[in-house]
Design brief:
Blueprint (H helix, E strand, L loop, with lengths): L1 H17 L22 H12 L15 H13 L10 H7 L7 E6 L8 H8 L6 E9 L5 E3 L3 H9 L3 E7 L1 E2 L1 E2 L1 H7 L5 H15 L3 E5 L8 H15 L4 E7 L15 H7 L2 E5 L16 H14 L5 E6 L1 E6 L5 E4 L3 H8 L2 E4 L4 E8 L2 E6 L3 H13 L4 E5 L6 H10 L1
Parallel strand pairs: 1-2, 1-16, 2-4, 4-7, 7-8, 8-9, 9-10, 10-16
Antiparallel strand pairs: 2-3, 5-6, 11-12, 11-15, 13-14, 14-15
Length: 412
């Protein structure tokens, strides 16, 4: 079954490239914008469509008047589908109500790794028409819930000018993963301090929401992490997005690495859940694909069973690893692979994993490189459609090249 399904995915990926996109939906462009105070047949139609979709109270009559009940129904729809939460019904709200699928979310992580690093900035500027959320990797947390870092002012300004939502990333990665600080910061003692700091920074800098990326929390921290997200969600309200990055896993039988992440609770609270579907193999372990299709399918089979699929953003790695024989692997950017290929050639395709790899010899040392390219990406994007996911999250902006965005444009 596994081999047949992989063959099906490969053929489907090819077919999608060749067959023009085609579903035609009712034209909603001529619908007027409705808001609190609007009256008439259009409002009656709106209320009926909201009731049909399960957003309007079942026992509530269709009145033709846009009041607070209708407003609350509209904002619930907007939040569910990742629209701007303003309670006004425009073309995007009408499109969803008419049955047209909303556009997939394309989130790009924006980082400044060293003074003068403009890779993310340049990528955001060049590909802004395909990106609708930018997660600014700005703040780390200490063990008392204090935030340290600096605001990506240039990136935020650019994103706003392009209509891209900005998320403030709060993480625990500073050279290495600081498990202790994140674990302590979400404890009963420091949780309120952490939440206050997050909310204040969001207000101060005008972020559209937050992306929580606390990695390596031990299983004993599951309850504290759930409480932290519950309280943070309450403080953010409906106007700000709560997004959470979680490690990939294939069952609820969590390991020390992913046992603290209660997918069901996180999926209920978060507007979007970024599945970190990469580092299946990593530099500190044996060589292997960063994100093979069989592994990805197992992760999605489990995840979509406990998290609403429309909330899931599938993590896409714009990197691979180069393992010298008997040594630790080193990360290789997507856009650096062309130089290796030109120099050494010998690229092969693994039909089992549905990803490419490269072997070469430098001096007396044999190297093996597992990486991603437009072909492996195309197959991954077929899964976005198959599982009806909310979209994708790229780690990170500036590591990719034009072939990445060409593939995203064709598929999403």
């Amino acid at each position: 079954m596994g081999r047949k399904f992989r063959l099906y995915l490969f053929l489907l990926a090819l077919l999608i490239v060749l067959i023009p996109s085609g579903a035609v939906f009712a034209d909603s462009g001529d619908q007027e914008v409705l808001k609190v105070g609007s009256r008439g047949e259009q409002v009656s139609h709106l209320q009926s469509k909201l009731k049909e979709k399960g957003f309007f109270p079942a026992g509530q009559k269709v009145t033709g008047y846009f009041g607070w009940i209708t407003y609350n129904s509209v904002t619930a729809l907007e939040k569910k589908f990742g629209l701007t939460v303003n309670g006004q019904v425009g073309s995007r709200e009408w499109s969803i109500l008419y049955g047209k699928k909303p556009a997939r979310v394309v989130l790009g992580y924006y980082t400044v790794d060293y003074p003068g690093d403009r890779l993310s900035r340049d990528s955001l500027a060049k590909n802004s028409q395909l990106i609708n959320q930018s997660a600014m990797f700005d703040f780390t947390v200490d063990q008392k819930g204090n935030l340290k870092g600096s605001v990506s002012s240039e990136g935020i300004k650019l994103a706003r000018s392009k209509g891209i939502k900005t998320l403030m990333v709060v993480h625990n990665i500073s050279g290495s993963i600081d498990i202790h600080s994140a674990y302590n910061a979400i404890s009963d003692r420091y949780r309120k301090q952490l939440i206050d700091n997050i909310v204040n920074e969001i207000k101060k800098n005008g972020y559209d929401g937050v992306n929580i990326d606390f990695e390596g929390i031990p299983p004993a921290g599951k309850k504290a992490f759930n409480s932290f997200l519950e309280e943070l969600d309450s403080r953010l309200g409906q106007s700000k997005l709560l997004t959470v990055a979680v490690p990939a896993k294939t069952s609820d039988n969590g390991s020390n690495w992913n046992g603290a992440y209660d997918f069901k609770t996180i999926g209920r609270l978060a507007d979007y859940v970024v599945l970190m579907t990469y580092d299946e193999h990593w530099g500190g372990g044996p060589p292997g694909p960063v994100a093979s299709i069989p592994w990805l399918i197992r992760v999605l089979d489990y995840s979509t069973g406990v998290i609403p699929p429309h909330k899931i953003l599938m993590g896409i790695p714009a990197y691979g690893y180069d393992w010298p024989s008997g040594q630790k692997g080193k990360a290789v950017k997507w856009n650096s692979m062309s130089r290796l290929i030109e120099q050494y050639g010998n690229v092969k395709w693994d039909n089992n994993y549905s990803v490419p790899y490269l072997t070469y010899k430098k001096g007396f040392v044999q190297h093996k490189v597992w990486f991603e390219n437009k072909y492996s990406l195309a197959i991954k994007l077929v899964l976005v459609e198959k599982y009806n996911l909310g979209g994708i999250a790229l780690w990170r902006l500036g590591f990719e090249d034009a072939s990445f965005w060409d593939t995203v444009k064709k598929k999403l």
